[in-house]
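Quick question about two entries, pasted in order.
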Amino acid sequence: MGGVVKRAFRYRFYPSAEQAGQLNRTFGCVRLVYNRALEARTRAWVVDRQRTTYVQSSAWLTEWKRTQELAFLNEVSSVPLQQTLRHLQAGFAAFWDKRSRYPRFKSKRKSRASAEFTCSAFRWRDGQLTLAKMDAPLNIVWSRPLPEGAEPSTVTVSRDAAGRWFVSLLVEDPTVKPLPPVAAEVGVDAGITSLITLSHPLAGVSDEHGKVANPRYGQADRRKLAKAQRDLARKQDGSANRAKARMKVARIHARIADRRRDHLHKLTTRLVRENQTVVIEDLSVRTMLRNRRLARVISDASWSQFRSMLEYKAQWYGREVIPVDRWYPSSKTCSVCGRINTTLALNVRAWTCPDCGAEHDRDINAAKNILAAGLAER
């Protein structure tokens, strides 16, 4: 990996009432501009079969600001509005390349409230951050230091459903460098009873068999969440008590997500630091979530987030992540002699190979086969 890594550092901050109002207006304008541009680009294609670009949507934004109906767009910084058009363009580019679905409209209730500011729309001075259209710097809680001498190139401000405010600073981090090569290689089998199973044990992470326990943070707070949701359902729409109950539900969800993310960060960092090659299954999590019996536990395991973390950390530190075809029969294949069973029910957690007599734990055997298949694909 060459060059300096760009890394985002996220912090909590506590805006004043005036700052919160300005940011909430910015979030609303960003969402409106995105939806208007998406509608206009879709209409241009459906009616005239014309592909539009960012340049054209930017010209539309200028026209919208001149109308009496949308004159309020001038009250917020223009940079987040331009950035959301760039994000829309990236969404269309991914759709045309068949890497994602068609861009969807942003919902006021369900979409993430965020705004992106480039260096022309904020002032960074003496460790204080002041956004455009604001007189005072943000009250940021510096939970960890930025790299020495770092200058943010992009700032993203967001508010989650629990009402917490975050600011993410994108900086160049010279401290992220490739690690010294190691000989260790590991296969990873994703599971439910165990979060993952490794082809060989990892001290301090897995047990002696290579299995990493599944914390099931969603399951742990399930009763508390169910009670909060029942309380929310009893509140009258539009009332202050309903708003308080909704916030309580959001805080429980935020606690679950925070704990899960922290655990996955620690786990993926250990895997990347101590192994030169990590081989994983190329799972289609979206398809697996259609199984109503397993959807909740699959979501709680967060396999997609695990893979995402693993891949970008491997890129940072000069490691390799190899995905294995999802149809590879890793559980049905004997890791000793290579015999493939025609059937193997999901409830069979251990089996004996009829040919060589080897006794297998289903998950450990799958992890060993995944490692062998990944190394063979190099």
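Here is the second entry:
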Amino acid sequence: MTDTRSTAKAEAPGTPAGRSRRPRGRPLLYTSYAQDMALLDTRAKKVWTGLLVLLALSLSVVLADRSLEVLAGAYVLAIGAIGLNIVTGYAGQVSLGHAFFVAIGAYTAAAVSGPRGGEHLGFGLAEIWIWLPAAGLVAALFGVLVAPLATRLRGLYLAVVTLGLVFLGEHVFKEWDHLTGGPGVGREAAVPQLFGLPLDQDGAATKEQQLYVLMLVLLIAFAVAARNLARSRIGRAFSAIRDRDIAAAVIGVPLTRYKVLAFGVSSFYAGCAGALFYSISGYVEPGSFSLLLSVQFIAMVLIGGVATVSGAIAGALFISLLQPITRSLPELLPIVSADTTVTPNVFQVETVLYGLLIILFLVFEPRGLFGIWIRVRAYWKSWPFSY
């Protein structure tokens, strides 16, 4: 009887044409295709997402500047993790060369933003709306150039080829002093300037507060774009290739086109993340783009949750907030050194810890932190019943 009244209410004459009102108390009963495809398909998701964004914004006036700087870096790493999730999680193409594309973006932004005629290569365009898209597009161009290999290789072979990009990039960046400043020296990163207002200087708000809000806004924009991409025809083609590329080709999915597109989009995200991350510290050095950085991004994706945007964000926050703890190990454990020339040092411990976390999550919780959240949510939705 209740269902009949709810349906009648949903089809009330006052309802605008082409729209359907979801029956009260039935949040997952869709009466239109638009409701089923909505980004936030229930009122609870809309409310909690809004509250989460407001909470994140409120942290800019609550936390200390050092904490805001760490969170701003975590948001930028989340953008890079989303990019890796697109090519690995959604499209199923294994990539260990994410650090290479991050480096391309960082140095492109530094060159575009750098002063003309200086010691290093620079074009004097300091506006963020210029160097940020440029960093993403140049990285995407390199991704498209590498992508044809994905059409011929798969699995371990593709992973080894993309891993080679990291070592190739390390060599080129260490030798190209005019662009990078050389190993151990480095150069100034991109200047975060928006419409003539430098965001790396204290004003009405501290520079940490300004950069924190900027990175949060950009993370939301990149996350929404990635989520919409995953829900589109392109995202469904990515999923078909990931699940079974031969079957996808049989039903008419052009494998080459979508694999190239996946690498291009992923590299664009990585380039933007590289440009933004080093603009926070104001300094970029060739030794930063090692295999460890690629392992960090893989850990973010696997720990957070493969093929989920929210999982990539959760994984990036987890790894970023774990790093300050590992960097303080020399104070707690004298056996661990902060000097990279001594074994064991803190960076070796980080590498081992990332590998251990990846193994543990793959064995005990393959869906990562997102899977844990799904299980907790399902428990409370069915509570107090056990089914």
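Reply: The chain has 18 helices and four strands. The longest strand covers residues 187-188. Hope that helps.
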